[in-house]
Amino acid sequence: GQLDLAFQPQVEIATGRIVGAETLVRWEHPEHGVVTPDVLLTIAENAEIMAQFDDRILRMALAEIASWTDPERSGLNISVNISAAKLHDEDFDIQVLNALEQAGVAPSRLTLEVTETAIIESLEVAARSLGRLRNHGVHIAIDDFGTGYSSLAYLKSLPLDYLKVDKKFITDLASRKRDRIVIHSLVELARSLGIGVIAEGVETEAQLSFLRKEGCNWYQGYLCSQPLPAAQLETFVAEWNSRAGP
Ligand code: C2E
Ligand code: CA
Ligand code: CA
């Protein structure tokens, strides 16, 4: 009962509007204070409760979304991180569809973020579940792209909607030509496969203008906002989008 959710806005680069948010877990321990997600997830992994943990977060996120009736938040697409352990569940797709139905949330509002490593560890099971979920309208994103296998063969054969380029490629865009070449090629590749590109960890206007020029579709990062508690998200989106225009 001590877990909380924060939501980091995702901005559509072409319009400058916030169109979605990523769910990130927060734990404020009564004695130890704030426990970072890295520590929390390591604890959950060691205790072999990652799958239950993901389940809890997904249900919390869906309950939260279902409670949003304001125009600011009710149109947002929400991303939830899914760990390898959860993805390995044979009936993962059924679990997600049940959770959506119980919460009364349309599948098309949910994006599941999975890493390449998690998919490759159980390729057959994962591809089947993700494919079925996608047929029901759930969106699938590959998280931290560029830090794992980055296999082009998987990109081509998996049921995917978005590719999230890891922040390590974004941080030094200004000074590293190689990173600019990687981004350029990734956007090109994704476009030719019909996959959208989300850049993570965007902190400066210079990074954003490069990404815009390359045709990257969305970004998230401190340039827009840190992850916010759900209540703050409402005012933040209202103010941001009214400045961005229709
Ligand atoms: P991630 O999925 O890559 O999430 C993005 C991380 O980058 C978040 O860290 C976010 O706060 C941080 N970030 C966002 N914008 C910026 C920026 O502009 N600059 C920099 N330097 N950092 C930025 P956070 O919240 O500490 O989460 C760390 C990781 O923990 C996440 O990485 C994700 O892999 C995992 N995680 C977080 N919440 C959950 C969850 O509910 N379930 C699961 N399975 N994993 C989670
Ligand atoms: Ca993520
Ligand atoms: Ca990521």
- Give the overall pLDDT as a whole number: 94
What is the spatial order of strands in the main beta sheet? 1-2-4-5-6-7-8-9
The percentage of residues in β strands lies in 15-25%
Biggest sheet descriptor: 8 strands, mixed, barrel
Tell me the structural class.
Answer: alpha/beta
Bound molecules: ligand C2E, calcium ion
Concise synopsis of the structure shown:
By secondary structure, the chain is α/β, with parallel strands linked by helices. The protein is built from eleven helices and ten strands.
Write up what this structure looks like.
The chain has 246 residues and is α/β, with parallel strands linked by helices. 46% of the residues lie in helices and 22% in strands. The protein contains eleven helices and ten strands. The chain has helices at residues 37-46, 50-66, 71-74, 84-87, 92-103, 116-121, 123-135, 152-157, 177-193, 205-214, 230-244, and strands spanning 3-12, 18-29, 33-35, 77-81, 110-115, 139-145, 162-165, 196-199, 218-219, 228-229. An eight-stranded mixed β-barrel has the order 1-2-4-5-6-7-8-9, surrounded by four helices. The protein is globular, with a radius of gyration of 18 Å. The N and C termini lie far apart (39 Å). The mean pLDDT is 94. The structure holds ligand C2E and calcium ion (2 copies). One calcium ion is lined by residues 143-144, 164, 166, 200.
